[in-house]
From TrEMBL:
Species: Paenibacillus crassostreae
Protein name as it appears in the record: 3-ketoacyl-ACP reductase
Keywords: Oxidoreductase
A Pfam family reported for this protein in Swiss-Prot or TrEMBL: adh_short
SUPFAM superfamilies recorded: NAD(P)-binding Rossmann-fold domains
Length: 252
């Protein structure tokens, strides 16, 4: 396993989908220790800028960048921009994703392709683009944000569960492939988190959901970001190929 010889201030983390929710919390967590933070966003320009301002308030060097993560050419452009700014990621957090709620019988091929591309293909393209830099320096961290539904599956979320199950399998396989190069690949599979992804639920549905969780509440984004940060630390180098699910005891 490679030894990491950069300082915190020389280390760069790229978080995809970091304009809000879990991604924003992850960006701010790394900024708090003074890492260089790259905030990727799709269309939420103002929200990304607000996250950037919060990160800079901690003294971090911050870059915001937009790209369609389903498009290889867009990722190449993102790669070139990061290279120009000397902010190639040592840590890649694949957080960008979308949810889908509904019966499988109502899922069109277009919806299927969109969710699978956004949640799974994007991770493939980003890992493929940025892991050569990590291989060259013989150190790196790839952390994929999955979901508890990728472990257990969920009725009326077959498509979303499928995409996240794919993320989990991708994580385990790539971890074995990259381990000899000093790179770890892990997934964080949260349970119910208090973000806009639950906005489709009514107040009574949220209460019923909280009642199902032994902890009696939803997770907060910063509780997920703390785990992501831990997995990125040099001393976490023997944790590899794992799918870790912070879910308040909901699924054990």
């Amino acid at each position: 396993m490679g030894e990491w010889n950069k300082s915190i201030g020389e280390t760069t983390v790229l978080i995809t989908g970091a304009s809000k929710g879990i991604g924003a919390a992850i960006a701010e967590r790394f900024a708090q220790v003074g890492m260089n933070v790259v905030i990727h966003y799709g269309k939420s320009h103002e929200e990304a800028n607000e996250v950037a301002r919060r990160c800079m308030s901690h003294g971090a060097n911050v870059l915001t960048i937009t790209a369609d993560l389903k498009d290889r050419e867009d990722i190449v452009r993102m790669y070139e921009k990061l290279q120009d700014h000397r902010m190639m990621p040592d840590i890649l957090v694949n957080n960008a994703g979308i949810s889908h709620y509904g019966l499988l019988s109502d899922v069109t091929e277009e919806i299927w392709d969109d969710v699978i591309s956004t949640n799974l293909k994007s991770i493939f393209l980003c890992a493929q683009a940025f892991m050569p830099h990590m291989i060259t320096q013989r150190w790196g961290r790839i952390i994929n944000i999955s979901s508890v539904w990728g472990i257990t599956g969920s009725s009326c979320e077959v498509l979303y569960s499928t995409s996240k199950g794919g993320v989990n399998a991708f994580t385990k396989a790539l971890a074995k492939e990259l381990a000899p190069s000093g790179i770890t690949v892990n997934a964080v599979a949260p349970g119910a988190v208090n973000t806009s992804m639950l906005s489709h639920l009514q107040a009574d549905e949220l209460r019923m959901l909280e009642d199902e969780i032994p902890a009696g509440r939803l997770a907060q984004p910063d509780e997920i970001s703390s785990l992501v940060y831990f997995l990125a630390l040099p001393e976490s180098g023997y944790i590899n190929g794992q799918v870790i699910s912070p879910n308040g005891g909901w699924v054990t």
